[in-house]
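Consider the following assembly input.
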Amino acid sequence: MSAYDARYNASAIETKWQAAWEKAGTFKASRSGDKPKYYVLEMFPYPSGRIHMGHVRNYTMGDVVARHKMATGHNVLHPMGWDAFGMPAENAAMASGIHPQTSTHQQIAAMKEQMKPLGWSLDWSREFATCDPEYYGQQQAMFIDFMDKGLVYRKNAVVNWDPVDMTVLANEQVIDGKGWRSGAQVERRELTQWFFKISDYSEELLAAIDGLDNWPAKVKLMQANWIGKSRGIEIPFQLTAPVGDIADIACYSTRPDTMRGASFVAISSDHPVAKALEAENPDVAAFCASCRKMATNEEAMEKAEKLGFDTGLSVAHPTEPGATLPVWIGNFVLMDYGTGAVFGCPAHDQRDLDFARKYKLPVRNAFYMPGEAVEVGNDALVPAKTETIEFIDHFAGIGAVTSQEAIDTTIDWFEAKDLGTGMVKYRLRDWGLSRQRYWGCPIPVVHCDACGVVPEKKENLPVKLPFDVTFDQPGNPLDRHPTWRDVDCPACGKPAQRETDTMDTFVDSSWYFARFTAPNAATPTNMADAEYWMNVDQYIGGVEHAILHLLYSRFFARAMNICGHLPDSAVEPFDALFTQGMVTHEIYQTRDENERPIYHLPEDVADGKLTATGEAVEIIPSAKMSKSKKNVVDPVHIIKQYGADAARWFVLSDSPPERDVEWTASGAEAAHKHLNRVWLLCDRIAKMPDDAGGDDADLTRAMHKAVQEVTLNIETFAFNKAIANLYEFTGILGKSKASGAAQKLAIRTLAQLMSPYTPHLSEDIWAHQGGTGLIANAPWPVADETLLVQDTVTLPIQINGKRRSEITVPRDMPKEQVEKLALATDAVIRALEGGAPKKIIVVPGRIVNVVL
RNA sequence: GCCCGCGUGGUGGAAUGGUAGACACAAGGGACUUAAAAUCCCUCGGCUGAAAGGCCGUGCCGGUUCGAGUCCGGCCGCGGGCACCA
């Protein structure tokens, strides 16, 4: 049994070193010292009560960065907190009766207990939850500041309304157009809601994307597309007969060049003309009502069958004297974008074509040349994005140009004829932050009959959520609270009522990164701390946040700057961003007597069978881990079985961090085995006399190569490649015949290189090998590049681009000589058959290609 | 539907436009062992060949290039987002 005793005991080692870090305050950040600061942040978790592999992966990545930066002489801030408001706690309260505040705090405690054993280098002294009144009170103070600066306003907006539960539903709670709880057909309803004027910053948020050099290109592109800047023209189409006092319908278009192909005008069911008609025409009213049955999300609207209603109205065609176009109400026209009206050009737009076919509207070629037919046959869709638009010549009397120029020129032409107004529009809409829910940050305003909407006085903040609420019925408990709403008007002192809407949880997560710089400040931030710690040097989180969370945070940083809560230098709060992939797992299911699926946890399945009953399970390909599909692996089991270091090592090995990774139990076991090997190797090397063994050159070169590669791969977020480098170096060290002294240096270096991944094991090896102090505080090794240069290189020889042979030559051999040697190889001689090559390409140090 | 990604052995993946499959996992074979576990060693894209080698091969079709997994165009499949999930 002695072999067993020699195995490394992860849990003992991990507990020991966590206690040592705690005692030394190794990860407590303070604004002092002469080291450069480095702020690394992972997106904080929603306290669901259990950590999952995605958290382990995300926070381990951040930890690798944090520990590496610490070792390279930075003063590191690496905080953690809780995105604690949100629907799940409120839903749970309705189901179980447990108050959200109670359950949230329990879940935070439970998650923290699971996170601590992973040994992340977090400064827990800065921890807060967004549901702490100290946090959301500061958020309320900022809301009032934003009001002062004109960044907040109220307007009507549509919500999903459940007519049975009499409550507003989140998009997630609408399933196939029905309320998830009641099953009732969901309706759209207009409510007066609070908005942030993020659209004032459309241009700035777009322009500043260019400066985000260390953000993934795809995220920048998604944000730019989301903001959606377009140059177009607003053209008033004159009604042939006015509707009330409305004389025209303005259409915004980015493709005025297709005007000659227009065959109808479509307006939103919420357009003033539609509303005017609705009042007098029950058929219009019925159609508009059906449009309002649709869910509010863009996806549902775009995918829904395109329906129209002919109003019988018509408008004059702007460029074809005497011609008119019919006006339809279309369920696909958004009132929120542009003017709520579009002209349809079926020949050049697939959606318009579908609509025209359905309702037998003409399909006219906008780009017809003299002598060509105007009407387009049934299947003659002309591509919408015509590159060369010669029609311009015919249409506007100007030369042929490329597409965007053609459009710009057309806009100028329309403007010159006074037919419309060129303008830039953005797709980005203002941020509706009102939520008709309890478990969120109360909006700190009061409604007074005399004074209107009045912000709460700052000295009365925080406006705390009342604890004595019930969840026995749907809707917002704040609305039915007997006394909480009653308050004196902050302006006139007369009895008034509190706002009962709370804030979108995206508000909470739009500035927590700033709060971490001074979590106890009596103001939202402390300027000295914000100036020192901001920006976040490295932000890490799921790519699912690529648009909303990151865009809102960018807006918030600007708004906070205007209100004096962040310095000018922090308007772009995240210097570098890394978006990680998801952790996935196979799904195991059996079926009940009604063929409905029953899902099973991976821990209950072995060899395709349920361990309990032996029943075979269906295996569904890997998908994002989700509780509902039960394809979740609880990291706690893995950590107990293999140790935190093995879990950390495994989640970062194999898969590149930006890509999804499939969880396999064997992978975690393999990680554990490898760490055990390293531990045994350390033990063996420690027992070697320094002068035992021989030549050190190969080991030394391998060590410096490992230092160079691992460092580069950590710095570029290629954590999987760094692990491959470490495997390789460990293999070389394990077989090395170098001196004891060289091997001891090598294993200490290996421990250092591994320390961001496996900090506990590394500390243990460090101590075992006589390292000074904690490895967490030891300076990162530096590669001696002069040792890495090889004297000779092996060049592949290609014949017509296919590898056929290779030659080994001195690194700096001149091209001509390499060429000569290549031509002398058997493979080339054989291929040439006595003839001469057409061409020889020699890329020094790389390759030789002989072209026949 | 729209926007953005991704697609390489049995599996995860590696590859500044320059030797496709590094490094691992799984599998198979072997050593050690009474045996098993653990550990160590070997093989491991396909076809072909005694071997040397040859041919094919990075989702599909085409293009650029001396040379394409990598760049361009068009498809197919999968994933993320679509403004009240976080």
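Confidence is low (pLDDT under 50) at residues 1-5, 377-402 of chain A. Ask yourself how this observation constrains the way the partners meet.
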